[in-house]
Fold this sequence. Notes:
Layout: H1 5-14, H2 29-33, E1 39-42, H3 48-61, E2 65-68, H4 74-80, H5 91-104, E3 110-112, E4 115-116, H6 133-145, H7 148-152, E5 156-157, E6 160-161, H8 166-179, H9 184-218, E7 223-227, H10 235-238, H11 241-247, E8 251-254, H12 276-289, E9 295-302, H13 306-320, E10 326-331, H14 337-352, E11 380-383, H15 394-401, E12 404-407, H16 413-422, H17 429-443, E13 452-457, H18 468-479, E14 486-489, H19 506-531, H20 539-556, H21 560-576, E15 585-591, H22 593-597, H23 605-611, E16 614-617, H24 622-638, H25 645-669, H26 681-689, H27 703-713, E17 718-724, H28 730-733, H29 738-744, E18 749-755, H30 761-772
Parallel strand pairs: 1-2, 1-3, 3-5, 4-6, 7-8, 7-9, 9-10, 11-12, 11-13, 13-14, 15-16, 15-17, 17-18
Helix pairs in contact: 1-9, 3-9, 4-5, 5-6, 12-13, 15-20, 16-17, 17-18, 19-20, 19-21, 19-25, 20-21, 26-27
Amino acid sequence: MGYNAFDDKNKILFERGHDNHTGEATNGIGEINGSAPLTIGIPRVLNMYENYPFWHTLIVECGMRVKLSPESTGALYQKGVGSVMSDNICFPAKLVHGHILALTDMSVDRIFYPMVIKEEKEFDSTANSFNCPIVSGYPDVIRSAIDTEEQYGIPFDKPVVTFSDDKALKKGCYQYLASLGVKASVFDKAFQKAIKVREETKHIIQTEQKKLFDKAVEENKPVFVVAGRPYHADPLVHQKTAQILADMGVDVFTEDVFCNTENGEFSKLNVIAQWSYPNRVLQAATEVAKLPHNVQLVQLNSFGCGPDSFFMDETSDILKQADKNHTILRIDEIASPGSVRLRMRSLIESIKLIDHDNAIKSGSFSGYPAIYKKEDRRKTILAPWFADFISPFIPAIGELAGYKIVNLPRTNSKSAGKSLIYGHNEVCYPSTLVLGDIIAALQSGSYDVNDVVVAITQTGGQCRATNYVAQIKAGLKRAGFSQIPVLIMSSGKVYQNEQSAFKIPVLKIIKIGIYAILYGDALQAMYSSSLLRESEAGASKCLFDKCIGEGIEAIRKNDHNALLGSLERAVEDYNRLAIQDREFTKVGLIGEIYAKYNQYGQAHISEWLRSQKMEVLTPPFIDFIMQYFVNSEVNVENGVKRGGALKHYLKPLTLKYMNDKIARVEKIMENYRFHYPAESVFTQAEYASEILDLSNQFGEGWNIAAEVASYSRNGINKIVCVQPFGCIANHVVAKGVENRMKKLYPAVNLLYLDIDSSIAQVNLQNRLHFLIN
C-alpha cells in the first residue's frame, strides 16, 4: 500500500471543529444583536480547498460559528445540477450548486462565498497570480442561479478580496466583518491569527509531503505527483485516482510538494504563467522533469477547463524534453474508476521497463527560439484580420509609427482547418482561427518567411486571450516556422515576450488612433442600419468601401480633421441613400469581442439575421477600451492594483481627452437619420453593477451585462450573445448571470450561441428562428 497525500491534505484543511467558536460573544457579533453568535455557512468548493483555514480562523476568532458543507457526493451533485447555468462548464463548478443548497439545510444564518480575484504570488518569475474566471467569478453565478435570500431567507455574502496583497486583504475582510458588527480591535487580532494559520497550514502540507517524497525518491519507489487544482483534492472530483494508485503500491503526492521551490523556469515558457493554480502544475512538471524516472507526473484535467487548454501543451513539452510521460486524466461528473485503474496500471508497468541508470536528464526546458531584435524593425509585420471596420486602418497607423504592417487575408475554411493541425484543439475559437490564418499565410508562399514578423494582441487579464501568444508560438514551432519572431501589440505591460527593440511613438499616433476607432465604429453603425433598408442592392457597401478608403488616406497624413470631414460627408451620403420606407425589428448582437465583430468568427450570424429582415445592432468597439476607466477604479478599491499618485492625476485628464473626442464624433453622428445614441461608460457600469460585481473584468467583463441592460432600456429586447465554445469568461458574465438579467429585465429574450469549428449552420439558424419569430 502506497502513501496517499490527498487524504492527509483534506484532513489538514478541513478538520477544524466547524460548529464551535473560540472567540467570546462579547467580543463579536453576539453582544450586538443580543442573541447567539451568527452561524456562517461556507461551501466546501473550488478555492476553499486553498483558503478555508484562513476563513475559518478569521470568522471563528471574530466570535461567530462556522459550518462547512459536507463532503461531495453524487447525491449532493444531483441536488444542485438543476440550477447549473452552463452544460459545458467544469465539474468542480457544477458541484458548487449542490454545496450551496446543502448549506441551506444546515441551519446557517448566512452563506459566505467570497470573490477572490488573486491568490498569493508564490513564484517571483510568474506573470501573475490570478484565479481563473470560474474560481473568482462563480459567487456571482450562484447569486443569480440560486437566490438564497429570496428562496430560503439566508443572506448570501460575496465580498471581493485578493490574497496577493495583505494590506488589501485586510481591508476587504474588515469591510465585510464590520458590516456584521465586528469591532476593529477584535478583527485585528483575528486577522493576524488567520494569516498565521494560513501560512502554518501551507507549511504543514508542503513539508510533511516533502519529507516523505524525498525518502520515496531516494528508495527508488514508484512516485507519482498527481497535479491539478487544489479542489481536485475532492475525492468525488478526482474519482479517487490517488487511492487507486496507492492501492497499487505507488506513493502519491500533490503539486503542493513543490510549492516553495522557485526555479526560474517560468521565464523560459511560451505560456504566460498568470493563473495561480496552473502555475503550480507547471512548477511540478519542471521539478519532476529533473528527477529520476521512477518519479512521474499525472495531470488532472476537468473537462471544460479553459486555462488547461493552453497549459497542457507546455506541460507536455517540459516532460518530453526529459523523456517522461505526460499522463492526463480527463474527469467530469461521469465516474470511470475502471478506466482510471487500467491507465494507471499500464503507466506503472511501462516505468518498470525503463533502464533507470540512463533515464535521468537535466530537465532543462527551452522555449520559443526567435525573439524580436533591432534588425527585425525593417521586416513586414503580419496582422491577423480582426474586423472590417477596424483592420483596414491598421497598416496606415503602422506606417505612421514607422513599421510596415500587412493585414492577413480574412479567415476562410482552409485557414481555419490549419489550426486544427498545428494547434491545440481545445483552445478558444478566436485563437484557433488566428493561428490558422497565420499558418495558412506562411505556407501560401505569398510572404518571405525570413522577412516577416507575426503580431498578436494581448490584454493581460484573467481571460485566456492573454495566452494567444503561447498558442501561436507552439503552432509556429510545429509548422516549422520557429525562426519567425512574434510581436505583441498591447497598450499595457507585455507578458512573456522579449521585444524591447519594438518602440511605439505613442504621442505621434494616439490622437489619430482614437479617431480611427471612432470613425470605424460610426461607419459600421451607418452601414449596418442602411444595408437592410437600401433600395439599390450594394449601395451601402459601396459607400462603406469609399469611406474606408478616405479614412486610410486621412490616417496616413495623420490628419484627424480630414478624418472628421470624411465622417461628415459619410453622414450626408448615407442620409441621401435611397431606402425602403418601413420599420425593422432590432436585434442586439453582443458577446466575445472577436466573435462579435469578425464575420467568420461569428459564423456569419449578422448576415443571416439581415437576410431575415432583422436590423443588427452591435456595440461600438470604443466601449471595450473605455472599460479601463471603470476597471481601474474598481481594481484599486478591491486591492487588485495599487493606485499611485501619478495615475490618480493622469486618469481624469485621460478620460477628458477620450470623452472630448467621443463627444466630437457623437455630435457629427447625431445628424445621421438612424443614429443610435452612445451611453457613457459610467452609465453602463451602473447598469451592470445591478447584475454582477464590476470586479468581473475577464473577457468582455461586466460589459455584456451592461449591453443587455442598455439595449433593453432602449426597447431592444431580442439579444444574441455569441461566444467561443467553452469560453470560461462567458460562463460567468453571460450565461452565468442570465437569471439575474432576466429578473431585472423580464422583457429580454436572450439567446446564447457557442461557436466553434464544428458548429452546424443549420443548428444556429434553427435557434435564431426561435428568437426572431
